[in-house]
Design a protein that fits this description.
Largest sheet: 7 strands, mixed, barrel
Order of helices and strands: EEEEEEHEEHEEEHHHHH
Radius of gyration: 27 Å
Structural class: alpha+beta
Helix content: 25-40%
Strand order of the largest sheet: 1-2-8-11-10-9-7
Oligomer: single chain
Distance between the termini: 44 Å
CATH topology of one domain: Ku70, Chain: A, Domain 2
Number of helices: 7
Length: 298
């Protein structure tokens, strides 16, 4: 079943307007384990209350937005005023330039990505034309989108037959690298060191990547801990922080190269045989079973 779109509007290229719907491409909570803050003595969940220094707790419908133009003095901006200002602009993604894929530094990409789908039969042809041209020419469209009154720079790129929109960081949000690069000093690198490193790169190189092979070890460890706690098991920490040995570069490269192939094979084998992580539903069922078991004992 298709999820609900989180936005509807138009993808605009000059005078061409394509009706599109947007669906989040990244789930920020799927598969993640979250903890709540509790009062240690009674295990009650901690609540956060918005308060005013004069009147105490304030309900949400009595809270407004304000800009502090002087110390302790504010100009209030009503929600309706923001809506009136940006209602039309928030309904479109305006493509402003087309660039080569290699021209966009990945440092500007954020975690906010969405799949764009054509809305209605009339949108399918222009959508397909834009997607195919970007794919054939290996290019990305840069555009402007307004969300909640704020300008957002977005990149629209082809993925398969889809168009994917990714929000970009603004130039002022990304720190310049000059200050950090200045901390580096020139070093002499020998041809043999370069040769061994290139060979090591080749041992790790793959034409394709399956990110599903990279497991979230934090979630795995937390799931095991929760399962043990629900079963009443006590755990003692046996994990130690391993400090890597600092050895001669050439020796390290040679040893790494010798170990690269068997490690690669082991990773592939482990990925195929790895057990699936317990889901939140499984953990909840375990919690219910543990409670019932405890109740029977009582």
């Amino acid at each position: 079943m298709m999820p609900r779109p989180n936005w509807k509007g138009f993808l605009k290229l000059s005078l061409v307007s394509v009706p599109v719907t947007s669906y989040s491409a990244v789930s920020s909570t799927e598969g993640e384990i979250h903890f709540h803050q509790l009062h240690a003595s009674c295990r009650s969940r901690i609540k956060y209350v918005k308060t005013c220094p004069i009147h105490g707790a304030v309900p949400a419908d009595e809270i407004v937005s304000g800009y502090e133009f002087a110390k302790g003095e504010y100009v209030v901006i009503q929600k309706e005023e923001l809506t009136e200002q940006f209602l039309k602009e928030e309904k479109s993604i305006d493509i402003q330039s087309i660039i080569a894929t290699s021209a966009l530094d990945p440092i500007y990409l954020t975690e906010q990505s969405a799949y764009l789908l054509p809305e209605g039969g009339i949108a399918r042809k222009p959508y397909a034309v834009i997607e195919q041209c970007l794919r054939e020419q290996n290019r990305i469209a840069l555009g402007k989108r307004i969300v909640n009154g704020r300008d957002s720079l977005v990149a629209v790129r082809p993925v398969g037959k889809l168009l994917v929109m990714t929000t970009l960081s603004n130039a002022v949000q990304v720190k310049a690298s000059d200050e950090y690069e200045a901390q580096l000093t020139d070093v002499e690198v020998t041809p043999s060191e370069l040769k061994l490193t290139r060979t090591l790169f080749e041992a790790f190189y793959s034409n394709t990547v399956d990110l599903a092979e990279f497991k979230d070890e934090y979630n795995n460890r937390m799931s095991e801990l929760i399962e043990d706690k629900l079963k009443g098991h006590k755990r003692t920490s046996t994990r130690k922080l391993d400090q890597p040995d600092v050895i001669n570069l050439m020796d390290a490269l040679k040893k790494s190269l010798a170990a690269a192939k068997p490690q690669s094979t082991a990773r592939s084998r482990n990925a195929k045989s790895a057990k699936s992580e317990p889901s939140m539903a499984q953990l909840k069922r375990s919690a219910i079973a543990a409670k019932r078991k405890s109740a029977k004992r009582a």
